[in-house]
Amino acid sequence: MANPNIRFPILRRLVVTNYALFPGIDSSGIDHTFEPGVTVITGINGIGKTTLLNIIYRLLVGPFDPYKDQEAIQLTQTRLTRLVFFNYFSKRDRGAGTRASAFGEFEFGDRKLAITRNLSDLSIASITIDGAPATTGDQNLENKIWQLCGCGSQYDFHLLVRSLLFFMEEKTPVVWDPVAQVEIFRILFLSAEDALQLV
Fold first, then answer.
1. Each residue's pLDDT tens digit in the chain (199 positions)?
2. What are phi and psi of 44, to 5 degrees?
3. 3.40.50.720, 3.40.30.10, 3.40.50.300, 1.10.10.10: which CATH number matches 9-198?
4. Rounded to whole angstroms, how far apart are CA atoms 188 and 198?
5. What backbone torsions phi and psi does residue 87 show, to the nearest 5 degrees?
């Protein structure tokens, strides 16, 4: 039986401003509300499809990646690596600087997250949970995001989002890698406490 506390994030709205790759009409950027059902993004190579997916992904996980030992996820690891110098988005838009930002509205079951990040360094510019603003005086703002998912740790949240919700070039091969399979089953089918105990 699956862990009933796990709540996958569902994107409801995406806004990208001051990012030249997505200028929008009259330089207004992107402001799109996602209706129920399937959304398909199509276009020729180099138009920004993967960059758009990375913006959505990074809205959730910020400037962190699961720690890799010899380029593979290890079951005994529960650490994250902070991307000290993050330039993914600035490499795709030389003028992005500090003005480019992304805003996303997500639902985690009956909970709601609204978050704005600066694309230059993925820092959180603003965050509200269930309509109440969180401030920098609150406990780590990044923690508030993964706790909405019901995972036992930020590391588990990252593995779940990266492995099941997003298909990126460096995606953990869940289908073929038995260690990755154990990690995902651990998160999905054990309580948060038991999942951490297993590690």
1. 677 889 999 999 999 999 988 888 888 899 999 998 888 888 898 888 888 999 999 999 998 877 655 555 555 556 677 776 677 787 777 655 568 999 999 999 999 999 999 998 888 999 999 999 987 555 588 888 989 999 888 888 888 888 778 766 555 566 667 777 788 888 888 887 887 777 6
2. -70, 165
3. 3.40.50.300
4. 13
5. -130, 20
